[in-house]
Design goal:
The structure holds 2 protein chains of 2 kinds. By secondary structure, chain A is mainly beta. Chain A contains 4 helices and 18 strands. In chain A, 48% of the residues are buried. In chain B, 3% of the residues lie in helices and 42% in strands. In chain B, the strands form 9 sheets. In chain B, strands 1-28-27-26-25 form a 5-stranded mixed sheet, with no helix packed on it. Chains A and B meet through helix 2, strand 4, strand 10 and strand 11 of A and strand 29, strand 36 and strand 37 of B.
């Protein structure tokens, strides 16, 4: 186990090249308070309300409605949030949707004379609807359909909308839930070559149209979860997610690929408490959750649960972020 | 490197509040300082406020300190779409600054500025050109409009280059400029490309597509020299060192109006590849010639003396002077105008070069040391704020402005929204303590990544680190395309 923990704390430095513009980084930041605290190593977690983003194949593996709401405040006046809802339809199907949202508050915009011309609050939003199909008792596949939009909130610059994209996913868990594996292939385009090409345009203050184009990198996330010493209401989950970004302009090519590693620990000292830590490319996350429904700590009865989540993040470049909170529940 | 490299380090950036720097500048100087006007019609004056060469301030002619370029709009219509406004700055024979503008797209003239340097009076001229007599006071200016000023300090245009006509609006009364152009067009002088006035002979020189014309009276005669009597003469510049006339393939030098044209000696290929856009003359008859390529891709300065290209210092090859020779601008800068501020009030004469978006370069020792003066606000003491100017990166490069409480080495890096590094601009380079530290050449982001690609349109983060201090700014990369020539 020690070696697994050590491995989980290692990260392969990313060889950032073509990052795919804003759609690329909005996706990389992910969403969800719990997931932030786990270093975004969330592809093989047990089903959550944000499955439409993290792994649609988990959508059928639930009973009832799961809801999630989170908000974050990062350094440099960056704010964000995520909303997710998921439910099963019968024994084999599950559906869900999620929205990831980011914005930069009050960006001062100076012209070349250093005159403040406006204060901009650009926002970026990624939404997806997803469907999951259970193919065996322990194995399922999923598909999500995502769209992206942004508004730079600049006078004369048009808002931008990236092409719709598809994510494919797979999930398998052990018979005794002691382990689980997940895989998500993101950003498959609807064009004949299956690449998601973005082109974005704007009109400058000189009334000159600007355009640039690129391929939104496909991303392959391979996730594993291993549960150590599960007992009644107590466990320690080790999470590991190698991530491969494939910015190459051909679908089957790995040119320019970059790799990273997400790792996390989730510890349940009690059935109503969780503690977490995670690491992803130089950024750390820690956090925890408390169950507030059912109210009695020792109670496991009742069909409704509600958790309050908290996460603190330390970004390598910008420092600590202490204001990420969320609510998760099952109805 | 044609010029001692260490001299480039002497290019000290200064900050001067209120100096317009965003759009193409036009410069003129007189016995009280420098005039600067941009194509948005904003005017400021720049003068040295102290005994040293390091304390330039800007002020309006009335004496009030200008706090921002937008503080004193002279004419504001230039921001309209489809504009074609030529900024003008020049001085008359009495040392009075003149400024004006011209709407080309609909031939509607707009004259605005007339000031008396002695009294600081600033008076707008009505939109019509009125009360003009035959007294020629002003010389040709950088936008190639020959201005005329009458006793009543009314302003008129005698020559209108680029419009295809030479007109005299004498006693035109209330007629509009458009009417006058239409009525007084002279077919033989159509397509005027440049005009100048010879200070020695007082002749008016007119460069046209049909040759070079000159004369002192109402009648102009064409040059008798074959090279200047038939072909396309792109421009003419007269000064104490003679007359320079540019044709499609050659730059000619004439000792006098009636002299024999001679090709300039030296690297004449420079002239073939470039168009002369402005000339400033120094007292030793040296012509400082501002050149730029037809597509404004490259520009620089050439020194000419009596028809010969001369170098900045002995032993070096005479060639185009640019950023490598100590000009405190980026390589991609577009130079817009050049003028010589005469010695006055115990201060030396200064040569000024205006740029598009990068401020003014000044030298008072014939190019030995250049000083950059540009519009900058003092930032908070210490590394607390980073301003990206302009914040909308639409062309060229944006400047990273910050302040340092103490001398130190600086790192400047660009990050994307996922806080992944995109570009390292500066790594461990020294910057002096200043309310406004920056290197005007290196502390700029052109939108390119370290891999030489243009970053995708979007929001990016700029980090400036000095020791344990860190400050951030944000910039919108809006440049289109994918190639990144660096």
């Amino acid at each position: 186990m020690r070696s697994l923990i050590l491995l989980s704390l290692l990260a392969i430095p990313a060889l950032a090249d073509d990052l795919g513009g804003t759609p690329g980084w909005v996706g990389r930041l992910g969403g969800g308070t719990r997931e932030f605290a786990l270093g975004n190593a969330a592809g093989a977690l047990e089903p959550t309300a944000l499955d439409a983003w993290w792994n649609p194949a988990r959508l059928p593996l639930r009973n009832g409605w799961d809801l999630s709401l989170s908000a974050e405040q990062r350094p440099l006046d960056r704010q964000g949030g995520a909303v997710g809802v998921a439910t099963n339809i019968g024994a084999r199907l599950g559906v869900g949707m999620s929205i990831l949202y980011r914005r930069d508050a009050d960006v001062p915009v100076y012209d070349a004379d250093e005159t403040l011309t406006q204060t901009s609050t650009p926002y970026f939003m990624q939404a997806q609807v997803a469907l999951g199909l259970r193919i065996t008792r322990t194995q399922s596949v999923g598909l999500s359909f995502g769209v992206y939009s942004e508004d730079l909130d600049l006078d004369g610059v048009q808002s931008y909308r990236a092409p719709a994209r598809i994510d494919l996913s797979w999930y398998k868990r052990g018979q005794d839930t002691a382990w689980a594996l997940g895989a998500v292939l993101r950003n498959i385009g609807l064009a004949s070559d299956l690449l998601a090409r973005e082109d974005r345009s704007g009109v400058s203050t000189d009334n000159i149209a600007t355009v640039n184009e690129g391929v939104i990198p496909r991303t392959l996330e391979l996730s594993g979860r291993y549960r150590v010493h599960p007992t009644q209401g107590q466990f320690l989950d080790l999470l590991l997610t190698p991530v491969f970004h494939l910015p190459a302009p051909e679908f089957a090519s790995f040119d320019g690929a970059e790799a990273g590693l997400r790792s996390g620990l989730e510890y349940a000292p009690h059935e109503a408490w969780r503690l977490r830590a995670g690491y992803e490319q130089g950024s750390w996350g820690v956090g925890g959750s408390a169950r507030i429904l059912p109210w009695q700590v020792d109670s496991t009865s009742g069909s409704r649960t509600l958790w309050i989540d908290y996460a603190a993040m330390i970004e390598r470049e910008t420092g600590a972020s202490l204001l990420t909170v969320g609510l998760r529940g099952n109805l | 490197m044609k010029f001692p490299a260490f001299l480039a380090l002497l290019a000290v950036p200064l900050w001067a509040q209120g100096l317009p720097r965003n759009i193409e500048m036009s410069l003129a100087s007189d016995a009280s300082g420098l005039w600067v006007v941009n194509s948005e019609g904003q005017i400021t004056r720049v003068k040295n406020a102290g005994a040293s060469q390091s304390n330039f301030t800007t002020w309006e002619p009335g004496g009030r300190t200008v706090n921002s370029a937008a503080d004193y709009p002279i004419w504001r219509g230039a921001s309209h779409q489809g504009r074609m406004l030529f900024p003008v700055a020049t001085t008359d024979s009495k040392g009075r600054g003149l400024l004006g503008g011209f709407w080309k797209h609909d031939s509607t003239g707009v004259g605005r500025i007339l000031t008396n340097a002695a009294t600081g009076t600033l008076r707008p001229v009505p939109d019509q050109w009125v009360n003009v007599n035959d007294t020629l006071l002003a010389s040709a200016d950088s936008s190639q409009i020959l201005w005329q000023l009458d006793k009543e300090d009314s302003l008129s245009a005698l020559g209108l280059a680029n419009t295809g006509s030479l007109v005299t609006l004498a006693r035109c009364g209330a007629c509009s400029l458009a009417d006058a152009v239409k009525a007084r067009a002279t077919d033989s002088l159509r397509f005027i490309q440049g005009i100048s006035r010879d200070p020695v002979s007082k002749s008016l020189l007119v460069a046209t597509t049909t040759g070079l014309w000159s004369g002192t009276g109402p009648t102009l005669t064409k040059s008798s020299h074959p090279s200047l009597s038939k072909g396309n003469v792109l421009g003419v510049w007269a000064g104490p060192g003679g007359i320079y006339a540019q044709t499609d393939s050659t730059l000619w030098h004439l000792d006098s109006v009636n002299g024999t044209p001679r090709k300039i000696a030296g690297d004449s290929a420079l002239v073939v590849d470039h168009r002369i856009s402005a000339v400033a003359w120094t007292a030793d008859s040296t012509a400082w010639v501002l050149l730029r390529t037809a597509n404004y891709g490259l520009s620089g300065v050439l020194r000419l003396k009596h028809g010969r290209v001369v170098s900045l210092s002995k032993g070096t090859t005479p060639t185009l002077i640019d950023a490598e020779d100590g000009l405190p601008f980026s390589k991609e800068v577009n130079l817009s105008d050049i003028t010589l501020e005469p010695a006055h009030d115990g201060e030396p004469s200064r040569l000024w070069i205006g740029s598009r978006g990068e401020g003014l370069a000044m030298t008072s020792d014939a190019g030995g040391k250049w000083t950059l003066v540009s519009h900058k606000a003092a930032l908070r003491t210490g590394l607390k704020e980073v301003r990206i100017i302009p914040t909308r990166l639409e062309s060229g490069a944006s400047l990273v402005g910050y302040s340092l409480a103490t001398d130190g080495n600086v790192d400047i890096e660009i990050f994307n929204g996922a806080m992944e590094p995109v570009r390292t601009l500066v790594k461990g380079e020294f910057r002096p303590a200043s309310l406004r530290s920056e290197d005007p050449i290196k502390d700029r982001w052109d939108g390119c990544t370290d891999q030489g690609k243009l970053a995708t349109i979007g929001l990016y983060y700029v980090r400036v680190k000095s020791g344990s201090q860190v400050a951030w700014g944000k910039v919108f990369q809006l440049k289109g395309g994918s190639s990144c020539a660096r």
